[in-house]
Write a structure and sequence with these properties.
Length: 452
């Protein structure tokens, strides 16, 4: 993520009345007068499944909003195997609005999957910039022009709406807030991503980038977004984040449990492919003119597997040191004090060793902050181990010292796993505002209008 894009030149706005070729749409089929119009600069896809109620107000509102854009736009309704009246509503909207300044078309696929619908439409669209928004329009459309402006100008490769970036305003229930933040924390810890919000249904990509990266994306469901972003980031592409105003749709029909399990499987599959070098990310980078990535710190593993191996070695040493310190201190200070002191001492040493050996952070800069953050992680470990000790004392007051040590060691191992996740995703995470291509952008400049 260090090189400024050197691919296609900025996309010039195009007159809306010029004739042009019809966009391809196989294996789905497209309906509407948009097929006889010039290729637009922006194609906004609305993926739908059984949305006969919400579809019409969504498209009309989006159509009115796009009418003010200074370049030609299209709305593509991507119906993936709806069984209600959605296909009829989509066809009627395409017939009514397709001849207006903003093109409207409907594409029907006979298989379900939001990712499948997006991949098909984006792969066959003739627009220079491709975007999508969810049909509920939870994201304020005021962010749409800032989202695509950097893509139209050629400044970035992918743009995402972020509910977690500075300046975003989010209204949603506590349950979905916790699930969303835990998911993004999991992505940072396992795949070491640097973008802040993978799930917001408000994203855009340059067409040349989509044609290169989409063939590598396997998921056809909700993990499609995450997989696309991870591959783009790993290929060294520039991802721009735009803070958005977002209001949760209380009528959402997403099966949270099924989606979460699918996401976990996707993370495992994608992480394994990256760790084993199965993806041609270097070829993607070179085909888009991004050059090579910066060399890694000498002697420090760059892959998740290598970092995990180093971390486990440091963790085993820390666990052994913790057990020894606890046995020595417990005789004079008592169990709780011995546990806290042993954790504190090993936490400081553990943070210092992982900082240098596992994550390759050298020099004094930021060392104090890293230790403070490491101690915050220590407090979580302390709560976990101390809580296990309290539960043991209340459940088995006559437990032997060996049992006590075994319970605390097991709890400490669990705290170690949590520690790796937090060290990787928070303490030693690359700061986005120090990395080109990961700026939080309150408002990107709008493209210039076409010359008179």
């Amino acid at each position: 993520m260090t090189a400024t894009p050197t691919g296609p030149a900025p996309v010039p706005p195009r007159p809306r009345s010029a004739p042009g070729p019809a966009p391809g749409s196989a294996p789905g089929h497209a309906l509407g007068p948009a097929a006889d119009r010039a290729a637009p600069v922006l194609d906004v896809v609305v993926p739908v499944l059984d949305e006969e109620v919400d579809l019409e107000p969504c498209v009309r509102r989006l159509h009115a909003h796009l009418s003010s854009f200074p370049f030609a736009c299209r709305i593509t309704i991507a119906d993936n195997a709806s069984t209600d009246a959605t296909p009829r509503v989509a066809a009627e909207l395409a017939a009514e609005l397709g001849g207006a300044a903003v093109q409207v078309r409907s594409v029907r696929l006979e298989q379900r999957g939001r990712g499948r619908a997006l991949k098909h439409v984006w792969s066959t669209s003739d627009a220079a910039v491709l975007a999508y928004t969810d049909v509920d329009l939870s994201t304020d459309l005021a962010a749409l022009l800032p989202l695509v402006a950097g893509l139209v100008s050629g400044h970035c490769d992918v743009a995402i709406g972020s509910r977690l970036a500075h300046g975003a305003t989010v209204v949603r229930g506590a349950e979905r807030e916790v699930i969303s933040r835990c998911y993004n924390l999991l992505l940072h810890g396992t795949l070491r991503v640097r973008f802040s919000d993978a799930q917001c249904g408000f994203k855009a990509v340059r067409a040349d980038v989509a044609r290169t990266v989409l063939p590598l994306v396997e998921d056809t469901g909700w993990f499609f977004d995450t997989e696309l972003l991870v591959l783009a980031e790993r290929a060294g592409l520039r991802i721009q984040e735009v803070p958005v105003d977002w209001v949760d749709d209380p009528d959402s029909r997403v099966d949270i449990l099924a989606t979460a399990l699918a996401d976990l499987r996707g993370i495992g599959r994608l992480g394994t492919a990256i760790a084993l070098g199965r993806l041609p990310l270097r070829e993607v980078r070179e085909s888009l003119g991004r050059g090579t990535r910066p060399a890694a710190v000498a002697g420090v593993p760059a892959s998740l597997a290598g970092q995990l191996t180093r971390f486990l070695a440091v963790g085993l040493a820390s666990t052994g040191a913790y057990a020894l310190l606890y046995l020595l201190l417990q005789r004079s200070t008592g169990a709780q004090a011995a546990n806290s002191l042993a954790l504190l001492l090993t936490a400081v040493a553990n943070t210092a060793l992982n900082r240098r050996l596992t994550f390759g952070v050298r020099g004094p800069e930021g060392a104090g902050r890293h230790q403070v953050q490491g101690l915050s992680v220590f407090l979580l470990g302390w709560a976990l181990t101390s809580g296990s000790l309290v539960l043991l004392r209340s459940g088995a007051p006559g437990a032997s010292r060996g049992t006590e040590l075994a319970v605390l060691t097991a709890a400490n191992l669990a705290a170690t796993a949590l520690r790796f996740l937090l060290l990787r995703s928070w303490v030693f995470r690359d700061r986005r505002h120090h990395r080109p291509g990961h700026e939080d952008v309150p408002a990107a400049p709008a493209p210039a209008p076409p010359p008179a």
